[in-house]
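Students often ask why inverse folding is considered easier than folding. One informal answer: many sequences map to the same fold, so there is more than one right answer. In these notes we will look at a single instance of the problem. The structure comes first.
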């Protein structure tokens, strides 16, 4: 809790800058506003204002988050979904976010990751299969897809 509470007007200015810097989810913004020492009713009003002024849009956040994590960190759908749930994003917005990931690009990324991991590993086929599968599951890819791709590796 800050040493000095912010007025709703001061908090509004700060939170707009916070939201303008990068996309935020509602939960993140709500926590930040409570950190400014605001009360529940004030927080709700400020969030409503931010949505109205298009500073805050959870669908936009979810789409950008999913697309970014897939492209930059090569995360799979499962991991992205879990992260969005942690940020209390609605199921509808999570479904919309998953549409950002093209099926062809998803499969291609999974294939590249599998081939790269496979090439790094030494040992028997069964050990390489297990380690590659575990690695891809940690990245958040679905087991049936992993098994198809890993099974086809030389």
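Output (designed amino acids):
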């Amino acid at each position: 809790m800050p040493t000095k509470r912010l007025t709703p007007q001061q908090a509004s200015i700060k939170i707009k800058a916070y939201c303008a810097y990068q996309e935020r989810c509602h939960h993140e913004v709500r926590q930040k506003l409570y950190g400014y020492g605001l009360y529940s009713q004030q927080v709700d009003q400020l969030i409503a204002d931010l949505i109205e002024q298009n500073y805050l849009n959870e669908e936009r956040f979810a789409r950008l988050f999913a697309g970014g994590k897939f492209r930059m960190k090569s995360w799979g759908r499962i991991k992205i979904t879990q992260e969005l749930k942690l940020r209390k994003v609605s199921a509808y917005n999570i479904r919309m976010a998953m549409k950002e990931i093209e099926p062809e690009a998803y499969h291609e990324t999974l294939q590249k990751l599998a081939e790269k991991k496979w090439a790094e590993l030494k040992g028997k086929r069964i050990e390489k299969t297990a380690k590659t599968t575990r690695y891809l599951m940690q990245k958040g890819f679905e087991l049936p897809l992993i098994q198809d791709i890993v099974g086809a590796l030389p």
